[in-house]
Design brief:
Blueprint (H helix, E strand, L loop, with lengths): L1 E5 L5 H14 L10 H9 L6 E7 L4 E13 L3 E11 L8 H15 L5 E2 L7 H8 L16 H10 L1
Parallel strand pairs: 4-5
Antiparallel strand pairs: 1-2, 2-3, 3-4
């Protein structure tokens, strides 16, 4: 019914469509500034910084999902797999495909000798929260996500 494999460069245009679909679902399509070309460089250049799986519907050979991950280092916990985005196209949700994809990433974290896996979920995304709760996921409170865009960093450094 479904096949999961490591992503290839030629998968990136479809994966990028899924990223845009997720951004629309999360009510932030204007925040996607990445491009397929950037993903090619960052995932398949001299120093790849992310990996990904694709979820394929066997009957159609269509890519219907992706899980994009990278490794981070926690001074408290050691090497961790960070699940950046986990996407199953809306019409395929609730059919077991997402479970298969998620468990593939869980397995990858063990194969790579990670001390655990981390990800984020929006507090209003009840379907995702319910899914993760089935895995007895610890959902941490009390932390803020912080970020600066490169343009903001440049401006701050010019002023200092």
């Amino acid at each position: 019914m479904y096949t999961i494999r490591e992503g290839k460069k030629e998968d990136l245009p479809r994966v990028f469509e899924l990223i845009q679909e997720l951004a629309l679902y999360e009510k932030a399509p204007e925040q996607v500034t990445n491009t397929v070309e950037m993903m090619e460089k960052d995932g398949f250049g001299d120093n790849p910084v992310f990996g990904f799986f694709v979820l394929i519907k066997d009957e159609t050979s269509d890519i219907i999902g992706t899980a994009i991950y990278y490794y981070r280092y926690s001074t408290w916990k050691g090497k961790r797999l960070y699940l950046e985005d986990y996407i199953v196209t809306e019409k395929e949700r609730g059919k077991g495909a997402g479970k298969l994809l998620f468990e593939t990433v869980l397995q990858k974290s063990l194969e790579e000798n990670c001390t655990g896996m981390m990800w984020q979920v929006l507090d209003w995304n009840a379907p995702a929260i319910n899914f993760y709760e089935k895995y007895s996921t610890y959902m941490e409170g009390g932390w803020f996500n912080c970020h600066l865009q490169s343009e903001e960093i440049e401006e701050l450094l010019r002023k200092s």
